[in-house]
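Researcher: Going back to the complex we discussed earlier. I've cleaned up the inputs and rechecked each line, so this should be the final set. Can you rerun the prediction on the complete assembly and write out the structure?
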Amino acid sequence: MTWKRQFARFRALFARQKPSDDLGEEFRAHLAMEEQDNLEAGMSPDEAHYAALRRFGNVTLAEEGSTEMWKWLWFEQLIQDVRYGLGQLRRKPGYTAVAVLTLALGIGANTAIFSLIDAVRLRMLPVEKPDELLLVERYNPRWGEASTSFTNTLWEQVRDQQDVFSGAFAWSSDKLDLARGGAVHPANTVWVSGGFFNTLGLRPAAGRLIAASDDQRGCPAVAVLSYGFWQDHYGGAASAIGSTLSLNDHPFEVIGVAPSGFFGMDVGEKFDAAAPICATAIIDGEKTRLDHRSWWWLSVAGRVKPGLSRSQLSARLKVLSPSILTAAVPHDWSADGQQNFVKQFLVADSAATGLSSLRRQFDEPLQVLMGVVGLVLLIACANIASLMLARAAARHKEIAVRQALGASRGRLIRQLLTECLMLSLLGALLGVLFARWGTALLVRYISTARNTVFLDLSLDGRVLGFTIAIAALTAILFGLLPALRSTSVSLTSAMKGSQALEVDRPARFRSRRWIVATQVALSMVLLVAAGLLLRSFAKLATLDIGFDRNNVLMVMADLKTAKIAPEQQLATYDEIERRLSALPGVVSVGRSVMTPLSGGAWNNSIHTDWSKALTGDDVLAWFNFVSPGFLGTLHMTLLAGRNFNSGDTKASPAVAIVNQTLARRFFPGLNPIGKTFRIEDHADKLGAPVEVVGIVRDAKYESLRVEIHPTALFPAAQVPDHSSTETFELRSAIPPSALVGPAQAAVASVNKQIPLQFHTLAELANDSMVQERLLALLSGFFGALALLLAMIGLYGTLSYQVTQRRTEFGVRMALGAGAGSILRLVLGNLIAVLAAGLGAGVLISLAATRVLQQMLFGLGPRDAVTMIAAGGVLSIVALIAGYIPARRATKVDPMVALRYE
Amino acid sequence: MAKRSEQDRIELVYGTLDMLILRTLRWGPTHGHGIAKSIERMSEDALKVEHGSLYPALQRLQQEGWITAEWGVSKNNQRAKYYQLTESGRRKLRAETSRWERFVRAISGVLKPAESEKTS
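Model: Rerun complete. Updated structure for the full complex:
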């Protein structure tokens, strides 16, 4: 059909005067002329009139034929189908509700996971022409890896030497404290270079944004608020401009507000305030990160110059790299390290969707979840398909009648599919509601105690398109087979109204059996995946981490922000520790520089006389500085030697307690107590010898997932000057959260200015399992859902089959078959289907679960226990679902059944 | 008007009606009744065309842009719609005619030997 005709129809749809109005007049003219001709040929007036009509033929048909051409026939038929379908759905509210609810769960789950994927990795930044933005990375040819972090020195070199970007900018996310002492009120602060807002093409919502002139060494402290922060804290008042914002107890002048909808460059976070990079000097004091050549804190991006291709840009960056890198080489690195440093080169990657650590952390889990919810939807489809097949049998006569009245098979299939489409669109509508609610829940769920995840989850075209597409696909998946099957009816047998549709029955049962077997197989795959992830999480959660995480409150204190001089810090920490131990409910107190399980790590190379053979990362050891009370408070076991005590001071010899892993690696086969190791300082120089005085049982360090490191603990009294925050661990006899108030008061009694953060150790432990917990929870939920759907599907299929074969069972029983043999007959069928499904499921699982490898902890993707358990659970559920209808088959009264015929 | 028996009338091959209409309009604009009459005349009544079935075809041809329609007055002072061939209609007619001729040649090529076998 040509576009011209389509257009003519389109016009006719809206034309006031329809072609059919003209037609009547045209026909009348035609008939009058013919009549005239006939009269002239000598007929009588009556004869002439009827002859003209006869010659014309069927007027209505001619009219329909002429007007039909002007309409979108399919459109009118669609409306007809929709109206008919609505009637059908209304007539069976139970069936409709079950189908819509099942679909809503399936489609909703898919939409929820997809909108997370969309928010985390697909959504473009709400800035001007985001696809022109490129992220600058350092590519290290030796490791074959690219890093996105830059030092300020390196960034300044990039800024001054590059000629490929029309604008380049750098930024870094930080958390600064809004409160002045006491409990910390963290503000997500982003340090931005002078070109940040300008290059992104953002306009202020109020005041002005940070410009190049604000980002000069020695700059005054200014800040731009995010729109949300401005609304929440200032009620959007214009007076906010020019007011003072306290960050880490330093005053920043508010100069403007960023536009609404802009949450920052980092996806998964939203910033509260932005300040120029140069202002870090105000926070840092003397040891400023501005000139620190191995403080990797900035991300760098730029807007590509118009007309420059990506390959031209890459080539140019590579040419510029040696001079940029040479100018920023870290002087305190070893010669080898420096050489490697200048051999790197800069590359560019798309920054259109922003930067996100969430992406790294949740990319794979989200993909796995997408697969899981896809399976759930397939199982739901299978369920509805078998539901539809059963219903198709019930509508047998209706279909036959319509066919007898002349409806073509294509037309009927279209009508049945329209019905399916309506079901799945209704499901999608409800599903989108489920998804909105579900994603919000999920985002809260992946937020940790210390890091609130923020994602822009507003519904966008991509998510809606995805939902509509899967709804349509779903409709075809569950509707096509039943539609095809139910329209291939033999008219005569249907009209006879007999239940014995001998010809059709085997085929009908076979397709349902296929559906059930598929469902069992898919459920099996899902259960295996869920089982693996659940077991993996359970292993992680019950892992022996080397200390007791329960009933410990962690109090992180920041003496530097409180402006306490370095030489007074040790005494202040000791004093706080003493006051905290005196609190009622506190069993014991310890303190450490590194907070256990916080994700932070401090490591360096160490050397002993027996470690010469170690190379690469094997020479690394992880460090912590702890007070004498630390080991006891965390219930860590000292295996040999002594704990630290008040005799270990700054003046006394350097000592360390090492863990078993360190002892094994650096003192193989020896008793390390009394022996020494040396720490490799900057540029290949070894520090003074440290004597090992104790061995502690292995324990986790920064995260539950990471293997236990060789760890050395040093006395808190011997901590180097530059440490500014320490964490107090309080073993509590009462719920740890009840200690927050008293602990805060105790610290304030020492110094009111000290910012404090409170967490429980259990909380930190949970946070380091966030990914595993998410996967376990969701896959467990969907696994259970799949099991339920499979159970309903099996039950429905078998019930239907039993009803259909009631006569046959009646005859069998009349001929002397016992209840047992009928039961065996029905269950035998089920077991055959079950076995086929399980077999296929195991095969698919073996092939598919390999993608889980990275996400599993403490077991492999082909874990036999999980497979057997999943198969067992599925079989038991299937047999329960099958037993009920099978029992009913044995209750058939032969007389009643036979009377039906 | 000479009447022939119904059996002698040839049912129209699908699509040929379009060609006949276009052909009729080659001699100038005319109304539906005129078209019907001239098809009858041209085929010496061999083609059975129910006049009513002309109109869907006329609508189709209008949509394709091969003919246009305009209200006018017939010689008996009757208001009637006059159809006229467009330039693209002319082209279409030429193409259809040559296609038809090829078709007829091909069919007669197939049929002739069979007929001669029968008669011999």
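Model: Worth noting: Residues 74-123+360-497 of chain A form one domain.
Researcher: Good, that matches what I expected from the previous run.
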